[in-house]
Amino acid sequence: MTMLEITGFEKRFTIHHLNKIMPAIKDINFSLKAAEFIGIVGKSGSGKSTILKSIYRTYLPDRGEILYNSAAFGKIDLSHITERQMLHLRKYEIGYVSQFLNVMPRTTCRQLVTNALLEMGSAASIAHEEAEKALAHFEIDPKLWDSYPNTFSGGEKLRLNIAMATVKKPRLLLLDEPTASLDYQSKLKVREIIEKLKANGTTLVGIFHDIEFMEGLCDKVYDMQTRTLTVTDKVGVGTES
Fold first, then answer.
1. Who's near 223: CB < 8 A, 6+ residues apart?
2. For the whole model, what pTM was predicted?
3. What range(s) does the ABC transporter domain occupy (predicted)?
């Protein structure tokens, strides 16, 4: 089953004070089956994050389709669904991990992860238990669980961000440099969670500068410079398609 298919995708940005339209990306084409993981590679400014933000509907494409096989709505074009439908998908089906933590103020670390499960309908006891498991997995010090994240280091904020997104076990997970400021041990924790999510059917789209981290993990690699899609053999060597 094809879970995500992007065809003829193009995005431009308008710089109003200069009265200019700047092309960001164009002619992006790739597809993913359920439980596949695609890694998007390319230099800074090549449009990698623009693709993820467009899938998540932070941006709207200027051309092309972003077809997603939703559990709630069937096969839909994320470019044209209603805001209410997109809010539903963000709540129940599509997760997003960015490099930056943007959360409600005066909400503790433990509450943030617990609330992610409560809003999906989990019982309070299960939500609290699963939240603590997630925080422990990403080695967030228990002394910080009832603290506000604005006091956290960059790495702690990123690990919390990942915990909040992955604890919901989304059908589609978007990862924007999820290991950017993590040490090697923390990267392994992220890798372990990705492997578990894939085994349970989650489809993933990820951006990584750390190519070594991707080896053996991604099923496909999309190169922004050459616009080529490579199907990997899980040991870092692939075949263009």
1. 41, 42, 229, 230
2. 0.90
3. 4-239
Sign of CA dihedral 40, 29, 196, 92: positive
Question: Structure tokens of 171?
Answer: 């059908």
Q: What is the DSSP letter of 61?
A: -
Going by pLDDT thresholds of 50, 70 and 90, the confidence category of residue 234 is low
| Nearest by Cα to 95 from 208, 149, 171 | 171
Is residue 7 one of the residues assigned to a domain?
no
Cα 118 from Cα 91, distance rounded (Å) = 11
Look over the chain and give the mean of its residue pLDDT values, rounded to a whole number: 91
Residues 151/157/163/168 CA torsion (nearest 10 deg): 90
Residue type, 70: S
Structure tokens given for 54: 């467009």
Residue whose entry in the numeric block shows the structure tokens 């809003």? 119
Amino acid type, 135: L
Structure tokens at 66: 């972003």
How many other CB atoms sit within 10 Å of the CB of residue 165?
24
Domain count, the chain: 1
Write the CATH number for 163.
3.40.50.300
Residue 141: count of CB within 10 angstroms of its CB: 12
Which residues lie closer than 8 Å to 198 by C-beta, 6 or more apart? Answer: 35, 37, 204
The token duo for 179 is 């290991």
